[in-house]
Amino acid sequence: MPDRGGGPTGPRIRVGRPSRRVRTLLMTLGLLAVLAMAFVMFAGFWTDWLWYRSVHYSSVFTTTLWTKIGLFFVFGLLMAAAVGFNIWLAHRLRPPLSAMSMEQQSLDRYRMGIAPYKRWLLLAITSLVGLIAGASASGQWRTWLMWVNGVPFHQKDPQFHLDVSFYAFDLPWYRFLLGFGFAAAVLSLIAAALTHYLYGGLRITSPGARATAAATGHLSVLLGVFVALKAVAYWLDRYGLAVKSSDFKATGNWTGLRYVDANAYLPAKTILFCIAVICALLFFATLWRRTWQLPVIGFGLMVLSAVLIGGLYPAIVQKFQVEPNEQAKEAPYVEKNLKATRDAYGIAGTDVQDYAGASDTKDKAELRDDADTVASIRLMDPNIVSPTFQQLQQVRNYYGFPSNLDVDRYTKDGKDQDTVIGLRELNLAGIPKSNWINDHFRYTHGYGVVASKGTTADSEGRPVFTEYDLPSKGDLGAYQQQIYYGEKTTQYSIVGGPQKEIDYSDDSGEKTTSYKGKSGISLSSPVNRAAYAVAFGEPQIMYSGAIGEGSRILYNRTPKERVEAVAPWLTIDGDAYPAVVDGKIQWIVDAYTTTNGYPYASRTTLGDTTADSLTAANNQRAVVAQQNQVNYIRNSVKATVDAYTGAVKLYQWDTQDPVLKTWMKAFPDTVESKKSISPELMAHLRYPQDLFKVQRELLTRYHVKDAQTFLSGSEVWQVPDDPTNKSGSAVPPYYLSMKLPGDSSQAFSLTTTMTPNGRDNLSAFVSVNAEAGTPGYGKISILKLPTGRTVDGPKRVQSQFNSEPSIAESIRLLRGGDSEVEYGNLLTVPLDGGLLYVEPVYVRGGDLKYPLLRKVLVTYGGNTAFEDTLGQALNKVFGAESSTEPPDEGTTKPPTSSNPTVQAALADAQKAFDQGQEALKKGDWTAYGEAQKDLEDALKRAEDAQAKADKAAGGSGADKTDGKGTDKSGGTGGSPSPSSSPSSSPSSEKSPGSS
């Protein structure tokens, strides 16, 4: 075998350290790696600081940061000190090593191995546990700030008579401290035991005593600390019963004390507290007695007591005292839960009134007139017509609308009208050529508001636009139209520098602009450029010539994420909506304060209770919750985000909310006074959907005020599934201007229906006054239907619509060819003791890529109508014509063209349309089908002819549209299609969908 040292048997092999050059290279690479990691961490910190400073909420960043740092170091050092001290003490108390047993001989190798590194090992262990503990503690910054800034609720719980703030702000912090204490005691105990074992203080196999007196005393004290902490836990558990959740078979989810809690668990916790204190004292006594006998007996007694007193005794009380007479035993506690839950969710003032469910009015003409005034029935479904907005008002492919539009109110001629509104936002998927410059420098923003009347369509079933075209014009007047911040704007943009941005395009070509706002962060500094290059993983930010003097980077651009970032203590409503306010486009965002510590109030899961058919289809509408399980919620803050500057403003909406007052103490000067809300902004504030969804879910059980009824479960309701959606999700609530029984005028409201648990008939109609700034704002009204009468709910009404033979045949014809039928929102309107159901029906047919309103379904009192217009349907249902019905709005003149071929095709289309209407009157479905085919053929000829004319003229018909979707050269919507069927305005007949 070769000799490594060299010699006659083989060559010498030199084994030594690497050369100086290699060592220098390795050290350099290591240093560069450390510097790179440090700069990555610095980039994240620095860009966050710059962003918060740019939105003028730097105090939020600094307060949060220093709180996290303080908690990290305080609790990290405490944990490190506790563990380190006990390791040091165990080492200090080690016995002298005398006769070496086999066990000690084997351990001696480990002792010798770590002897040179004892200090470093101690430092490593304490640093590790300190880092872990500090990181865990820093995550409790909200708990700390709420504890140190908490303000009283001035409401006391009914069991212990403590202010609610104790449960909401104090108890969570005490529980964290207790958990930290347990962790420190357990880790210290483990570390001390291992050290004693390593140095002979504890023996497992050696003969003689198993532990030295010093080790016994040390470990006994640590065990005593652990048991003392357990005593504190038992004491806090007494108060925790007031916010404890449990499964109560009579009601399902339950929070607060029940009979067994008050009469078994509460005294049991007190007894266990006393036993734990005694047991802890016995452990401490080993410092003098040096024996484990009494502490072990005491600990065994505590464990046995926990099983018998804390587990078995309450089970016996429940089985033999409560269950035989549950309603009588639980009733007092149910009363407390009912009151607390209704207070915590803001439903205590709910007005419940009986409602007949059927009209007793004999005068049909009077009913018909009432139908015109009871509600502004919205035929334009904001969740259906987005593709129509897209097709008629997109103008360019790089613009887009959200899949769900919004409903707001705008005043015209002194009257409020429900309006469907959407913003023409930037859609990067539609830009002509995608590259870094186009994506982030040239295409940076959307442009303009598009709005339509909510209650009517034009003669072709299209929205009647009140704000339209590019640049937008219409009823909203002059305003800043550029949209740099929106729901679809998720990428960063670099603006204001040498690279010009595309502002918008019209017939004369592209218009360019350069951002003039103060939003975003300047990239003039090389440090900023390097930080953002690292943060966004885009090295071109470092050296691109497109970035120069004045360049600013915009990011975090969706309204919800901006509000969440500047107010991380708030829960954000899922639906931000735009409004034109004071010459600016403002996103309005509703925000909530929540807590999970309101005594006796039942908990709800925000993610579940706010889910419906809309959130199932569009995850962007989901609530942004700081904590998913809550039992107190308030719409405390109304926030706005400027679509041009990105400026975020928070307004105090609920001036009495103690949770908001607590956060305002923690983050002063971040929330503005309610008085700062301008009248123009107030006109567009509304009751938030997610809060209403939470409240309606609670009202399925908590609409009753009587404990006996609550316990019987006979009045439990449920939120029905959306009858027009196959996902099985809950029906969303709808905004609608309507007049409730007893009201003198319409109010903008948010409405929903309720059905009995497991059944499809109607139990109640629920609405809330959503008109901010009015005396009735936020008042929830329930029209409760009689249990002895079956009133059809939404699912049954939809089923009747679908099963009516004449309606089914009409639907089949509308689906002719490759057309699709889409049902709009099924609206429910209380009318003279009965319920009026209205549902718009849209058709997306042939080459048409967007839905048009074609029919209106109406039912009342068992009578159903399926007509072209709402007025016709109401006339048929009530058997009378309205004496006050206004003339149809939005009716457009027949499209015209200077092209003779197009004129001839449109004339044929008009003729086919008229023939189809005549066939409908006679019920001749065969003739109607043939007329529809002729209509499509004629419109296709008109489309082809117009396209050829546009091509010859060098223009794009799709871009030559006016605000109503009518082609400026004479066609409609840029390309004639079944949507642009000629109106029969010269005659008395109306086209399908006009209203």
What can you see in these coordinates?
It contains 28 helices and 34 strands. It is of the alpha+beta class. Among the domains are: 1-36, no CATH class; 59-95 and 103-211, no CATH class; 245-344; 492-556, no CATH class; 900-980. The termini are far apart. The model is unreliable at 1-11, 887-894 and 953-995 (pLDDT under 50).
Topology (SSEs and partners):
Layout lengths: L19 H35 L3 H35 L9 H13 L3 H21 L2 H9 L14 H35 L14 H28 L4 E4 L3 E4 L3 H26 L1 H4 L3 H30 L3 H19 L6 E4 L9 H10 L12 H8 L5 E2 L5 E7 L2 E9 L1 E2 L9 H7 L3 E2 L1 E9 L5 E6 L4 E2 L7 E2 L9 E3 L5 E6 L2 E5 L7 E2 L3 H10 L4 H4 L8 E3 L4 H8 L4 E2 L4 E5 L2 E12 L8 E2 H4 L3 H5 L11 E2 L1 E11 L5 E5 L5 H9 L12 H4 L6 H14 L4 H6 L4 E2 L15 E5 L8 E10 L7 E6 L10 E5 L9 H10 L1 H10 L5 E4 L3 E5 L2 E11 L7 E9 L2 E5 L2 H9 L21 H23 L2 H29 L42
Parallel strand pairs: 3-29
Antiparallel strand pairs: 1-2, 4-7, 5-6, 6-9, 8-12, 9-10, 10-11, 13-17, 14-15, 16-17, 18-20, 19-20, 20-23, 21-22, 23-24, 25-27, 26-27, 27-28, 28-29, 30-32, 31-32, 32-33, 33-34
Helix pairs in contact: 1-2, 1-15, 2-4, 2-6, 5-6, 5-20, 6-7, 7-8, 8-10, 27-28
Brief sketch in words of this structure:
The chain is of the alpha+beta class. Helix content is 43%, strand content 17%. The longest helix is centred in the N-terminal third of the chain and has 35 residues, at 20-54.
How helix-rich are the residues, as a percent range?
Answer: 40-55%
How many strands in all?
Answer: 34
Q: In this structure, how is the largest beta sheet organized?
A: 6 strands, mixed
Instruction: Note the beta-strand portion.
Output: 15-25%
Are there runs of 5+ residues with pLDDT below 50, and where?
A: 1-11, 887-894, 953-995
Query: Radius of gyration, Cα only, in angstroms?
Result: 36 Å
- In DSSP terms, counting alpha (H) and pi (I) runs of 4 or more, how many helices? 28
Q: State the end-to-end CA separation.
A: 104 Å
Overall pLDDT level: 84
Structural class: alpha+beta
The backbone outline, from C-alpha atoms, is globular
